[in-house]
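Researcher: I'd like a candidate sequence for this fold, 218 residues long. If you have to choose between options at a position, lean toward the conservative one.
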């Protein structure tokens, strides 16, 4: 995790969930994440069965030069990446993974900057299917950010952190294949004997182009 706001939100989420796969919406205390709040958002499942912004921090809205509340999350992404993002969202809401995404944001005049995003499951009325907690933060903040709105964004990398009680071989197979196909890895498939590597300083296993970190509480 490259940005302090990402790590702050993840550490807070991880701490308040306890032994659960996800904390409850009512557990979130904004005063405990002041340093990350401006980049934090909550998504909700809307009437069209897509996720839209229920809340969005001020810095995040400034980056897009518009209020994000009520706007579709899916439509922020380039059309070629929307299926991949939908796959990631299902991994978060249904399988309780944490998704770390890097993406390139592009303005109408083709200036670009890189962002880091995190998506985490959140319970609402006993279910994790209708809410997501997340943050998006520019890794570098060019002078024009907040003046030239981000109009298009493309995924450049991702990581999935699975809960402690999930078997990697059972859970990651469909995600790796689906996301790999959407991102130009049509021939990629996960292997049962993946090579260990280090990601963010902890041990991870590679499945196709995904690096899977065992143990969401690491």
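Model: Candidate sequence:
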């Amino acid at each position: 995790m490259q940005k302090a706001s990402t790590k702050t939100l993840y550490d807070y989420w991880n701490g308040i969930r306890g032994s659960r796969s996800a904390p409850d919406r009512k557990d979130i205390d904004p005063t405990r994440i002041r340093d990350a709040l401006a980049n934090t958002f909550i998504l909700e499942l809307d009437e069209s069965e897509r996720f839209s912004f229920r809340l969005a921090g001020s810095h995040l809205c400034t980056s897009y030069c518009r209020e994000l509340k009520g706007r579709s999350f899916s439509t922020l992404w380039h059309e070629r990446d929307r299926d991949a993002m939908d796959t990631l969202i299902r991994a978060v809401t249904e399988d309780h993974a944490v998704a770390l995404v890097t993406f390139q944001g592009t303005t109408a005049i083709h200036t670009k900057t890189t962002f880091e995003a995190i998506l985490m499951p959140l319970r609402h009325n006993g279910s994790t299917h209708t809410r997501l907690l997340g943050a998006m933060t520019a890794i570098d903040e060019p002078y024009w950010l907040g003046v030239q709105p981000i109009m298009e964004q493309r995924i450049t990398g991702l990581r999935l952190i699975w809960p402690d009680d999930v078997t990697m071989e059972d859970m990651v197979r469909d995600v790796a294949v689906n996301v790999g196909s959407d991102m130009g890895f049509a021939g990629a498939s996960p292997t049962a004997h993946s090579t260990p590597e280090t990601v963010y300083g902890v041990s991870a296993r590679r499945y196709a182009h995904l690096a899977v970190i065992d143990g969401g509480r690491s």
